[in-house]
Specification:
There is one protein chain. The protein is mainly beta. The chain has one domain. About 5% of the residues lie in helices and about 35% in strands. The chain contains 1 helix and 10 strands, in the order ββαββββββββ. Strands 2, 4, 5, 6, 7 and 8 form a 6-stranded mixed beta sheet that branches. β9 and β10 form a beta hairpin. The longest helix has 9 residues. The protein is globular.
Amino acid sequence: MKRWPGVILLSLLIATVPARAAPSFTVEVIAFRYGDAAQASMWAADEQVPALGGATPLRESVKGESPDYFTALPASSLRLGGASAVLSKTAGYEVLLHTAWRQPGRAAGPIYLRSPVLPEEAAPALEGTLLLREAGPEIRVSGEFWVLLGTQRVKVSPNQNLRVGELRYIDHALLGLLVQVLPETSEGDAAPESAAGPLETPPLRSAATPGPAD
């Protein structure tokens, strides 16, 4: 059974929209690390050099221009800002990455993602790829990430199916992902509304007992 972290709240969920064929999608991703699992001694180092050459990197958005495919959307366009803010303020969670982009259809190849490199860091805390592909009526989300713990890199390969419009939490003992894929809406279409609900913060999950991943 999936266990949602305490910050995945009804008030932050976007209502699921009906799956339908769409020429393009908007993908939004939040990647966060569990503080009680961020000890290098708990994990085996992965010295493999990430094979990222075939992945598409996100371009920086240009103010005043409509973002093209594979361009990181500006912060004002992120729908899950509330979830990211609560994660950042809650002890035990560390948001490494929050980004979104547009891509054509469900088979655009792997997307290269990495967290911002802070001045005091020599490498990004998170680096890797995310691939979306059709899986019947659903979309298969496959990731291959390397998380930096001190000088050690730990490989995490989350994968799971989701429905278009669903906010999916993909669990791992070290790294959690929130992923949402929305169809591009034509002018005049009603955008999904946020579900109203109370703010609740259940106890943190135990990093020693990771939830299952498909």
